[in-house]
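Re: Re: ligand-bound prediction request (bumping)

Still looking for help on this. To restate: I need the protein modeled with flavin-adenine dinucleotide bound, output as structure tokens. Inputs repeated here so nobody has to scroll up.
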Amino acid sequence: MYCGFTEEQEMWRKTVNDFMDKEVGREYCRKVYQERQYPYEFYDKVVKQGWLGLMIPEKYGGVESDVVMYTIMNEALAKFGVDIATSVSVSAFSAMNIVHHGTEEQKDRYLSRVVKGEIRFSISITEPNAGSDAASLATSARLDGDHFIVNGQKVFASAAHAKNNIMCMGVRTDTSLPKHKGISVLLVPNDLPGLEMRRLDTLARRATGTNEVFLDNVMVPKENLLGELNGGWKILTGHLEIERTAVAGMNVGNAQTAVDDAIRYAKEREQFGRPIGQFQVIKHMLAQMQLEVDAARLLTYRAAAITDMGIPCRKEVSMAKLFASETLFKVATQGMQIMGGYGTMPEYDMERYFREGKQATIGGGTSQIQRGIIARELGL
Ligand SMILES: Cc1cc2nc3c(=O)[nH]c(=O)nc-3n(C[C@H](O)[C@H](O)[C@H](O)COP(=O)(O)OP(=O)(O)OC[C@H]3O[C@@H](n4cnc5c(N)ncnc54)[C@H](O)[C@@H]3O)c2cc1C
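Reply:
Sorry for the wait, this slipped through. Here it is.
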């Protein structure tokens, strides 16, 4: 078994990394985060490269690549922070719901437009009373003639406020069925009458942003039902697997930069007449950090590769998401320790990576939930 990248994959890694270094830059990522600005310029540049279509079929303007290539992109786009990469990633993995479950008419209507950047997608499952227990979601959608009438409240809908955003929203369409069975997915544009949003003030993800969504008799056209009526749970669980692999890739990308920044600092910063990187304790901290990032990367690409083979891999996906998010948090915590007081200052970025890392262990399903999935897959 070969665990490296092929020549084509290496070229793709270099292409996206060069794009981030030359076309985007660390300062831009820090600035939009500090100013809490959705990164429209970054998103548009990615669209221009054609990368929103990475996993979209050629018929709709995409390049129909695989999950490994998509993961390589996510890793590189997140090199200066998961936050900015999320704007692209959430749109790309949410659009996959249409690729997998949309009707021909829906694919025609949406997919080429997402590739061109005319629309973007997000995912809205979580509610105030339905977090880890997502199947308890209660936002109701009642069919009335040509429309669903939607009422309820969503929370933590990342990027949902951005221009021309369409939420893939989990809604309850039948209260008489068991909780996993009465759920459907609707495509809900964010500018419908009766829909309001409030941006949340969170520890991280301040550029891409995450929102509360209030729905008061929102009329969603019947043709915006994705998949079967009351068949939404299957769509949402499938979605979460793609999301978790993408998130793992982004966490690895950000974690690698945290290690690289800490190494550079340890070589430059002198105390007691020599660079702090010459103290054995610091050397070993850095060695351990790189070890854990490499392990997270291997778990992540294993999950991506098995997904590409079409083999069920819920355990491997949860392992990748869990380990990569906890690794980002760990290496950023250690990175701040190595950078001393400077590590706590926004201009050194490490404190931003630390925030991203903490939040990464919650969004996309908490670490506890991932351990629960792994244990279940082990027959426990
Ligand atoms: C930055 C960010 C972005 C997000 N973006 C989105 C998004 O775009 N769309 C979306 O739908 N959601 C999004 N979420 C929501 C996210 O998926 C939820 O926060 C997460 O699933 C946890 O739900 P909760 O916050 O309600 O916590 P709870 O479910 O209330 O959990 C609280 C604590 O209890 C633990 N716990 C709960 N149940 C169990 C159990 N069975 N066993 C062991 N421990 C348990 C949890 O691990 C956690 O520690 C986002 C969250 C964050 C932080």
